[in-house]
Fold this sequence. Notes:
Elements: H1 2-19, H2 26-29, E1 43-52, E2 57-67, H3 74-80, H4 92-114, E3 125-139, E4 142-152, E5 159-168, E6 173-174, H5 185-194, E7 227-229, E8 233-238, E9 251-256, H6 266-271
Parallel strand pairs: 2-3
Antiparallel strand pairs: 1-2, 3-4, 4-5, 5-6, 7-8, 8-9
Amino acid sequence: MKNTIAAAAFSSLLTFSACKKPENNSIDNQKIEISEPAKFTVDSVKMNDSIKLTDSLKLRFTSKMLVFPTIKDKKLLDSIYFGDKKIQDFSKKGIQALLEKNKNEYFNTVKKDSKDWLADMTYAQEWYSNKGMEVKSNLNDYLHIQYGWGSYEGGAHNNYGFSERVFDLKNNKKVELKDITLMPKNDIEKLLMKNINKMGGGATDKNGKVNNSDMLLVDKIPVTENFYFDEKNLYFHYSPYEITAFAAGDITIPISWEELKGKLNSDFQKRMNIK
Length: 275
């Protein structure tokens, strides 16, 4: 009797095992895809065109603007293209259309402004407008862009200048001086005056040594928004006539991180690994 019961139980177990479907381990079989952030890329659009107004005057327009396909934040893009407030299309096609518009405006403006005296021009001249953007560095997701411009519309010499802007790609904003240092502006101005001859300019003494201070047009050097930085220094960039005579050229004044010790924003100092 016991053998019969055991045999029946064993037979039932076999039947249950045969009917039971294998479990589908969805965790083992499931494919998990993790999207990586888009790699930072830069493209550019260039424009180079000229027209001849008369036998004596030729106009040339050149421009280069950068395109940032991986930057999607509109507020950040508005800040990057701060000189063109009406831009809505940040694609390569949109930037190309903007350059075409800027070119036509330049040509038409010169034509309009010069019509009363153009016939009196007695010697051949080429006037020009030149604007450009250049990525100087991308350090710890701090993107440094230099904006340059140059022009000539008669006179003794051309004119040119620069604008330096740094953008925080992690927080989608333009970097302000307060994001870097807490030092009062008066103290920064003293350092600017102290360091004015540390980097080259157009002014030198008879021994060829940098002597920008001899061409100063101001009693104290103001703190400019045209700044950038690297692993060693904070730099302030001044265009001709801002603080010195044109002959001195554009002036860049460095202030070392050591000189700003104890006055740096702690988050910035950590991110830049400044000891």
